Amino acid sequence: MSILVDENTRVLVQGITGYQGAFHTARMLEFGTRVVAGVTPGKGGERVHGVPVFDTVEEAVQATGATASCVFVPARFASDAVLEAVEAGLDPIVVITEHIPVHDAIRMVEAARRQGIRIIGPNGPGITSAGKCKIGIMPNNLFRPGPVGLASRSGTLTYEIVASLTRAGIGQSTAVGMGGDPVVGTAFVELLEAFEQDPQTEVVVLVGEIGGTAEEEAAAYIRDSVRKPVVAYVAGRTAPPGKRMGHAGAVISGSEGTAQAKMEALRAAGVAVAELPSQVASLVARVLGGRSMG
After folding, report:
1. Cα(235)–Cα(102) distance, rounded to whole angstroms?
2. What tens digit of pLDDT does each residue of 128-172 get?
3. Is residue 281 exposed (0-12), middle (13-18) or buried (19+ Cβ within 10 Å)?
4. Would you say 51 and 30 are in contact if contact means Cβ atoms under 8 Å apart?
């Protein structure tokens, strides 16, 4: 199995006629994703890599039966695009767009939560279930099916750690790039709950970074509710307080949000914490022991 998406997910791409939308639609099709429709207002009737384009999400869903969305719409229009997808009941909605204003992000995330719809992102690489479905921009060649579920705040570290797992002969069930903004649609706790219920996932890898309290909340949830082994890496051990490091949410405020505090909370919850990204694969292999890896 997998979480959130599978081989039956029918994907609609909002912003498909832009450069990024068109480029990554081609990569998703190559991966095997069922991309059934695109939406760009005023471009209805066109085709992109053979995918029909519609003027509205409602028209696209009625014509193609799309069930999920991938958003490549520019930041100033992204919130309205996501609200259109929420109204159409698409789930999940993967938001690749970066630099969405905070109040717009709050508005679209709250609207989705009221409808019970999952948003992945914004400002993340999306979600990939190896051998089944990719929605977003993760590189196709890194993945192989297997027992490791991965949830990450960092797109680049997602790629790096998935690649090291694959080189070690360890496959993945689903990898989710949550995004690095202060407001994101899906948190570690929700993904841990999904991986705990997924029979394919035997080990969960959690990739955190400085800023916020998501890792500490994940540690408390792991301690109380997760029975599967968890391996973690937290980026930013040498980051100075008060300076934003890459992501909008990666800021240490006073004594809160440090990598050291997050690592200590995870270790106290029984998580195996790597000091370097390159150590994650060996920790996962140790946890898996002689079990099937891919």
Report:
1. 23
2. 999 999 999 999 999 999 999 999 999 889 999 999 999 999 999
3. buried
4. no
CA distance 66 to 88: 10
Residue of 24, 99, 103, 247 marked catalytic:
247
Whether 63 and 37 have beta carbons less than 8 Å apart is answered as yes
Query: Which residue reads 């199995």 in tokens?
Result: 1
- Tell me the three state secondary structure of residue 188: helix
- Per DSSP, 48 falls in state E
Residue 79's φ and ψ, nearest 5 degrees, are: -60, -45
Give residues with Cβ within 8 angstroms of 238, minimum separation 6: none
Q: Which letter does DSSP use for residue 213 in this model?
A: S
Residue type present at position 51: V
Identify whether 247 is a catalytic site residue: yes
Comparing C-alpha atoms, which of 156, 205, 216, 160 is closest to residue 180? 156
Q: How would DSSP label each residue in 54-72? A: ESSHHHHHHHH---EEEE-
CA 37 to chain centre: 21
Whole-prediction pTM value? 0.93
